[in-house]
Amino acid sequence: MNRVKWGSGWEHLLEIARLEGLERAYTWNPAVGCGNTECEVRKRGKCWAMMIARRFGWSFKPHLIPERLDEPFKLKTPSVITPVSMGDIFDLDVKDVAKILDVVWKCDRHVFALLSKLRNDAYALLFDPYPDHVWFGVSVNCQDDVWRLDILREVEAKRKYCLFEPLYGPIKYDLSWLDLIVIGPQNYPTVQPKKRWVESIVRNAKGARIFFKSKLDPRLIPKGGVSS
After folding, report:
1. pLDDT per residue over 97-115, tens digit each?
2. Is the pLDDT of residue 122 over 60?
3. Which H or E element spans position 211?
4. Alpha-carbon distance 176 to 90, whole Å?
5. CA 23, CA 78: separation in Å to the nearest integer?
6. Would 70 be classed as within a structural domain?
7. How many domains is the chain partitioned into structurally?
8. Rounded distance, CA 187 to CA 166, Å?
């Protein structure tokens, strides 16, 4: 597992940790890979996980790495953990998703922040409802992706969040029910969203908590009345 630092691509996990009264966050990769070719980031050739896999010659076909399954049990300090940061947990075979979520269920001293971009019956089939120490999130990059928020509404989880990173357009959707909204630019290379796109999210948040990534140009952040 890798510890998350402020300024990294996963720094929003430290905000979740703060909200949970914790101090540490980690990424955990008991699986790697994603086959979602319709993902907007992937269509633009900007999927950082795929770029890293190619750089090191790793397979990006979704696959389980069984020897990593027990890593959260070895971590004694309660922390926030996101599974499969190098892919999408719900693109695995359901039996492999179940193995990962079995660890999530049993290792309840930690808070697990799940994140997905996929339609998958595993959302409901494996945990219904999800345990209280799970945050469930989806990524949305543009208006065409808001169907993921429709699915997230139906997921029975105590805490829900949405990652608008990278943000490629304005969003028209009621976001007031989310526990956390994260806004960030494209990385590798850094491409900032337009200010009006950021404003569209802030407007539709209607007071919901927003976390602005540190790499987001501060001139894009509306002044006043926004939690961050």
Report:
1. 999 999 999 999 999 999 9
2. no
3. strand 210-212
4. 26
5. 8
6. yes
7. 1
8. 8
